[in-house]
Amino acid sequence: MYKEHVQYLACPLCGGDLEAVAEKEENLCIKQGRLVCEHCYKHYPIISFIPRFVAVKNYAESFGFEWLMHKKTQYDSKSGVDASKKRFYEETQWSIGGNHIILEAGCGSGRFSPHALKVCGGGGILISFDYSHAVDASILSNKPSKNFLLLQANIFELPLKKGLIDKCFCFGVLQHTPDASRAIRALVDVLKDGGAFVCDHYPFNENTIFNTKYWVRPISKRIPHKMLYNFGKKYINFMWGVFKFNRRTFSPQRANRLNWRLLIPDYSSEGLSEEQLKEWAYLDFFDMLAPAYDKPILMQTLYKYLVQSGLEDVHVKPGYNGWEGRGIKPAISSKS
Q1: CB 227: neighbour CB atoms within 10 A?
Q2: CA nearest to 50, candidates 38, 33, 67, 66
Q3: Which residue, 5, 75, 91, 108, is most buried by CB atoms nearer than 10 A?
Q4: Are 133 and 56 in contact, with CB atoms under 8 Å apart?
Q5: Tens of pLDDT along 178-188?
């Protein structure tokens, strides 16, 4: 972490200010060291430039496993398509520049971080966190700097000062937490008055009952991660002929629907090569079946969660990942 970033952090237990103690530094960043709460004296290690506020083992371990296996798979620079860039700007509806403090909640391998950094502007900062050790994949592509702070932290116990964040986005995360409503409230709590929030969430709709992954997950999420991943690769390889047959035989929409129901993730619409399609299928097979939590909700439920968090100007609609929701934290004048 960049040494001056300690000004943004707070003890997740008591809210006290933190003092940075460096043991090894590199380019004005603390590579190894610790953060010490000046109030309750709790210590938090800094390991490989990343402050760690959570235990190594937690319910998000599957995401650490998959993103360390697929560090660059979904990066536009690796795929040659603009899938991450397109999704980021279309979901957030944000413009480049402005010197914002942006919070990325649940970074995974960091595929959206380069685009969020552009929105921050030269005088802004992106604070990015993940509960899992996926942060160790993210930092390989998103180096620590005065404009980028990467944390391993719990969404329910954020180590950030209240009212700090100008904009927050949370993509592909809420359905994998034990309590999406509580997670949204925690993120809104660190927004400034007038701050913007955008998220997405898996949908519960008429098609959910036909989604094969929910039939398989009660068993698959209990399988050791390496065993499940290796099985997934063998399954995708075995079924790849079926995947290509469906793409040749049926309309793109019908083939896509059929392949997903056969648990063959189909990203043909992204313009990927066959090798890339298979790599994305390996990743998403595991991503569907391994997480400890996967709780789809109704559109009106996400709307309720956003309103209950205190957001105004709330809008929810179908989007990339199911439902897409956004809102604004009320300014002081509108609260009074």
Answers
A1: 9
A2: 33
A3: 108
A4: yes
A5: 999 999 999 99
